[in-house]
Amino acid sequence: MSARLLTHLRHVDLAVPDYDKQLDFYSGVWGLTKVAEDSGISFLVAEGFPEQYVVRLRKGDENLLDLVSYGAAHPADVDTLAERLLAGGVQLITQPGTVDTPGGGYGFRFFDIDGRTIEVSADVQARRHRKIEERESIPVKLSHVVLNSNDIHRTRTWYEKHLGFRLSDTLSSPHMGEVMHFMRISNQHHLMAIARAPTPHCTTSPSRCAASTSTCAAPAGHSVPDSPRCGAPAATWPATTPSRTSSTRMATPSNTRRSWSAWTRTPGTRTSTTSPSPRSPTSGAPPTR
């Protein structure tokens, strides 16, 4: 795909059995603000971000990634993307039309190669937000999402081919090979990371990693056994907010204790390999609320 029709990450929708505990984490430890709640569903905003919400929590029987939502600049871009996906054999869940979530808009949903539900929308009403002061230790915006895959090269190729993502660089280990691809759709280094997982399983921890201009965070205790549809959102924090830990091992697999110095990051200059045909999704669309 030559034209990049996606503009940014809107929100991530999660289903969790320990709903009250996770809500306390996101609104307390993580610093998001709950703006609405109804029958086991909560919408949480980042105070410095104009999106209607950045995380939607739903009480469910197991931990699942319900949805990853991206923005597009115009309704015409939404239509163009839907046409391209259909032509490329991608299964659509809904046709382009009115989005029935806070802020409305025009969009549609489809399955990615790993069975995750993805949404793309435009004309979503912006929320009134405020400037986050430098010393406020709360997220400014939703920065990127990490998606686990047991074949990171296949997943990377699919996102390059169908959604216009490009490889920024790759995290590698001399013992494990390539373990994470950092993918971009703009001049931001990455909007998505694809992490290698030995099984279709997602486990993240409440770690922080210090960066030159921001601090990023991953949610706590989100384990998704037997499901490839998993991911961890990350937030951009105020530039001068100190890191809450000095650890830079956020991208290190949980079962290894090798130091960060053993890992290398390679700029994205390699040619993509051919992706096999997408397999059938293993579940239907998430709740529309």
Automatic annotation (TrEMBL):
Domain (VOC): residue spans on this chain: 8-123
GO molecular function, one term: DNA binding
Residues covered by the Orange domain: 1-9
Residue ranges, annotated region (Disordered): 199-289
A Gene Ontology BP annotation from the UniProt entry: regulation of DNA-templated transcription
Ranges annotated as biased composition (Low complexity): 202-220, 232-254, 264-289
Protein name: Uncharacterized protein
Upper classification of the organism: Bacteria, Bacillati, Actinomycetota, Actinomycetes, Kitasatosporales
